[in-house]
Structure formats: C-alpha cells, structure tokens
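Take just one protein record:
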Amino acid sequence: MNGSLSNLKSVVILVTMDCDCSCDHCFYFQRNPNHAPIDPDLIDCALESISGQHNISTVHFAGGEPFYHYDVMVECIKRCKKHGIDYFSISTNGAWADDFEVVRQKLDRLRELGVNSIGVSADSFHQKTIPLENVLNILKTETPNIERSMGEMSFSTYAIATYLGYQSYDCQFNRQTQDIVQKIYDSGYYVFPTTAGAHGRANFIMPEELRVNKRLDRKCWEFNIGVLRPKFPESVLIDPQGFVDGCFGVSLGNLYKESMSEIFTRYFSDPNPIIRSLHEKGALGLKELAVERGFEPDTAYYDECHLCHAARDYLREHCSCEFGEYLAPDTCYPPVTDHTGHQVK
C-alpha cells in the first residue's frame, strides 16, 4: 500500500437507516421502506481484515435511529470490544424515549458496555416530530446539573442543537432552535451547538445570502478532520448495505464484495476517479469533472462541501454509467423524478 492505516482512529457505524423523522437538514434521502439493520458479522470481519494495521479506539453509532435496533447495536459493541475497542458514542433523535424507565434501563446497559457519550438531537428540525419530553428523559438519566458541571465540561449525556448556517444567523429555523435550547437550559441541562453541513437535504435549504464563498480550494481533510485524507485516513463510515464511505456518498467500496483491507489497498494505490479528483483538487476537481459534462455551477457556495455535493448530484444523475458506482449509497443523493414529480430511480 502507498498509505497507512496507522492514523485510522475512529469508525462511524450506521446501525439502520430507519427513521421516523424527515429533517430538512439530513445527510440522507429516504428511498425505500426496507431498513434492515447492519449485520454485526460485517463489522467483525471488517475489523479482523485490518487487524494490526489500525489504531481504532472509538466507534460512533448513528443512523437512521440506532435505538430502533437496540439489540443489534449492543451486539456490534460486543464485536468491537473483541478487537480492543473500548470507547463508544451514540447519536439519537430520542423518538423511542417516551418512557423514562425504559430509557434508564437501556442507557444503563449501554454504559455498562462502555458507551461513554450519548448525544440526543434537540432543535427545530427534530422537534417537528419528537416531543421535547423525550429529549429530557434521556438527559435526566445521567447528565449532571449544568450549574455544577459547566466548569468541568464533563458531559457524557447531552443534547445537540443544529443551527442553519451559523448559530447567530437570524432565520426561522434558528429562532425555533434557540427557543428549544432555552427550555433545555431552564431544565438544568447543557446543549452543544453545531451547524448543518451543506450535505444532502441541507443543500436545498441553505439560504442564498450564505452562499458567498468563491475560492473553495480547501481539501476535505483541511477542514473536516480525517475525511478522505489520502495517505493517512483518520475516520471511515460503514452503513447497513456494506458501503464504506470516506464521506457521505463518497464510497470507497462495499464489504459484501471485498474485505476492508482490499478496499483500503485500492484507496491508497488506485483510487476511483471521484476520490482521485478530491485528493488532487478537492471540490474544485469535482466541479471540473461536472462542468466538462454540462454542469453549470453557481457563482458562489456556502463552502467546499456545498460545491462538492452539487457536482456529485449532477454527475450521479447525468453521468451514472461513468460515475454511478462510485457515488453511493443512493440514499445520499436526491431521488430523480419525472415531469410529474414521481420518483424514477
């Protein structure tokens, strides 16, 4: 290999794509009702194939909603522990958390297994569907009172509020989110703020006035830690279909077709044209590929991710024979519709 996995320190496991939310800022576009969970054997085999090569110490579980397949998530944790991994974190939307006693039992079990960090979404996107009381049920199982913990910042169970653009940007989404955050603060709990990345659905709600960046020459790993770093990747994502993604919708390969070791051998020595362009020129490289094939870019974008996704959306829809196999899974891309608005693929 022309690179090394010595810096590979974390893995994101998507337990399932099943989710009862349809958030405007989500990375994913739901396409079918078959949301089978990830196979723990897949994780076991992937880690075994790169045994001794990596330094993975952290696994993060997300989705979809990982608690919809709680037993599968528990089994994945056990498989990871077999490989010496002992730090686990989870992102949840809290849809399942309407019974406090059930919440307490499930989270106690996860903490016993080594789950050190549990983040529950709390913002205008998620609270369209999920009662805020569910969020508080999760927080009050373990989170210390904010007044006693702010100095230490030692939160292992916390809320995550996603803002559009940036935290102080004035819009309906952010005002509603701030109201939700205030209610959580008033209940004595802390909320970590974050911003919606220009991935997936968020591309379609990013306000025009925030699309002001024109240079867009940073590489992925220069502003997203570890993402698609050419020689020493730091993180990777595995989804229920077996896709190994360096970023959302940028597939390195599929574990149902080849081993993790084989996937990384190719990544280092002979990357596919999408990854090669990102390595060489970043989002501007994908822009070039797309423009050569008829893409008409905007004059400015929110950031490099915004441009990258716009170019990839175009290449997947208009040049699927050439690039389709590298732009996966399909849940990362907008459904293509006909003139009546019906989904065609």
Q: What stands out?
A: The chain has a mean pLDDT of 92. Residues 2 and 270 are 9 Å apart (CA to CA).
